[in-house]
Amino acid sequence: MKEQRYIEVGFAKRNVFGRAILLDSKAPKTCQAVWDALPLKNHAYHAKYAN
């Protein structure tokens, strides 16, 4: 059995972090693509749109 993998996601300026479980059994290709892209640092923006 493969060991469970986790990634840490967060907002450094706010000092807010969390751990996300990679669900390899449900989405193996997606999980591997995310894992292969690490480490990743970037700016995050939130936008809301309404009609």
Residues in β-strands, percent:
25-35%
* Class of secondary structure makeup: alpha+beta
Helix content range: 10-25%
The poorly predicted ranges are none
Shape: extended
N-to-C CA distance: 48 Å
SS summary, helix count: 1
- Main-sheet strand order equals 1-2
Order of helices and strands: EEH
Instruction: Kindly report the average pLDDT value.
Output: 92
Topology, number of strands:
2
Biggest sheet, open or closed, and with what strands and sense? 2 strands, antiparallel
Based on CA atoms alone, the radius of gyration comes out at 14 Å
Can you give a write-up of this model?
The chain is of the alpha+beta class. It has 1 helix and 2 strands. The protein has one helix spanning 28-37; strands spanning 5-11, 16-22. Strands 1-2 form a two-stranded antiparallel ribbon.
Offer a concise description of the structure:
The chain has about 50 residues and is an alpha+beta fold. The chain is built from 1 helix and 2 strands, in the order ββα.
Secondary-structure map:
Elements: E1 5-11, E2 16-22, H1 28-37
Antiparallel strand pairs: 1-2
Short key terms for the protein model shown above:
51 residues; alpha+beta; two-stranded antiparallel ribbon; 1 helix; 2 strands; extended
